[in-house]
Design goal:
It holds the Pfam family HTH_24. This is Helix-turn-helix transcriptional regulator. It comes from Streptomyces atroolivaceus. The chain is α+β, with helices and mostly antiparallel strands and 246 residues long. It is built from 10 helices and 6 strands, in the order αααββαααααββααββ. β3 and β4 form a beta hairpin. α5 crosses α6, α6 crosses α10 and α7 packs across α8.
């Protein structure tokens, strides 16, 4: 979670950010809480806590809700409690990378590398319909740009640009990868993604760099040609999968 202040107030902004994170962490650790409960736990006044809660609500990190009452309801309005949103929970470390690595290692150890490759391809295939619709709706010369926009919508911060020098083609660049830490240990995810791009664009593509390999950006070279219609996604085994490309 980032709470950025103006440069002259940098020290204040840092303190505000730290305190706000403590408030959110208190809710994570203890569940939906009233402002009074949070104030007592973090050692602030209720007025100060409410100010931070207002900012957290504005940032979609926290949401206000009516406190559940078990048994007979007393007179008066129910106390308002504050709970983390899904976005707020995602701001904290969830150990998803470790879980994914453990799961993929189990697949490799029990079913072999072929099963791991099949999983990676299936993960891509789950996105084939949505991505293919975007590509088919674009003019042939704009397909790489269309793919970049679709990837960006899924959190990959992707761009498309002309390849430098004498190269006749484009570079598809992904500046972020949600599974980069997992792909460091399982490059099959990156290989399946490259196959996926080739299938979508109807032409052979070449992966030049990956975040998982320690490069600054994932870069895929797309030759400038007359692309054919997007192909059917790789293999019948690739019929189910997760949400995002590698």
């Amino acid at each position: 979670m980032k709470y950025v202040g103006e440069a002259p107030q940098e020290e204040l902004a840092t303190g505000e950010r730290s305190t706000r994170n403590r408030v959110a962490r208190s809710i994570l650790d203890h569940g939906p809480s009233t402002a009074a409960d949070i104030a007592q736990r973090v050692g602030l006044t209720q007025a100060a806590v409410r100010r931070h809660l207002d900012a957290l609500v504005s940032d979609d990190v926290v949401e206000a809700r009516e406190q559940r009452v078990y048994g007979a309801r007393t007179r008066g309005r129910p106390a308002k409690v504050f709970a983390l949103t899904d976005c707020g929970r995602d701001a904290f470390d969830q150990s998803y990378d470790k879980l994914a690595v453990d799961a993929l290692r189990w697949i490799a150890d029990t079913a072999g590398d072929e099963a791991l490759v099949a999983f990676a391809r299936a993960r891509m295939a789950a996105q084939s319909d949505a991505y293919r619709a975007v590509i088919e709706a674009a003019d042939p010369e704009a397909r790489t740009e269309a793919l970049a926009k679709a990837l960006s919508a899924d959190g990959y911060a992707a761009t498309a640009r002309s390849a430098p020098g004498a190269q006749q083609g484009e570079q598809l660049c992904q500046h972020h990868c949600p599974v980069a830490h997992v792909a460091e240990q399982f490059p099959q995810l990156c290989e399946a993604e490259t196959e996926f791009f080739s299938s979508l664009l109807g032409t052979h593509v070449q992966r030049l760099a990956t975040l998982a390999h320690g490069d600054g950006v994932c870069t895929t070279f797309v030759p400038r040609s007359s692309p054919t219609a997007p192909q059917t996604t790789h293999s019948a085994s690739a019929s189910t999968a997760g949400r995002n490309p590698a």
